[in-house]
Amino acid sequence: MHIGEFLKRFRDAKNLSRSKIAAQIGVSEFRLQKWEDKNFNPKSADSEKIRSYFNLVSIQYLSEEILAKCIAAEDGQLNNKISFEDILQQKDLLLQEKDKRIEELQKLVLAQEEVINRYKAGKAVPGGQ
């Protein structure tokens, strides 16, 4: 999950204004808006502030589970940091999803190559004229 989506969904669930959570994290409201709009990713110093605010080990592999735990926490901070095992599990899930997408793209490329080859050979192209 993109950090901007994580922050926006957390903020909405906790009914916090952008200015309030930006102040709590220690960043400008403008920066927070850019992240929420997915226009920018936080720089390392800001990533550290976000990580620290939520008491996370890392912000690289945010998941629905981590978001739910942060929302459920009274102050938004996890009482126990998410373990490295949890992070590795999330990473593995993301890698599996990436592999599925690569396979789908490879199938699309092969289908496009077949259409191109049929066109070059003068054969009818499905959906063509």
UniProtKB/TrEMBL annotation:
SUPFAM superfamilies: lambda repressor-like DNA-binding domains (SSF47413). Residues 7-62 form the HTH cro/C1-type domain. Keywords: Coiled coil. The keyword Ligase does not apply. InterPro entries: Cro/C1-type_HTH, Lambda_DNA-bd_dom_sf. The keyword Coiled coil applies. CDD domains: HTH_XRE (cd00093). Residues 88-115 form a coiled coil. This is Helix-turn-helix transcriptional regulator.
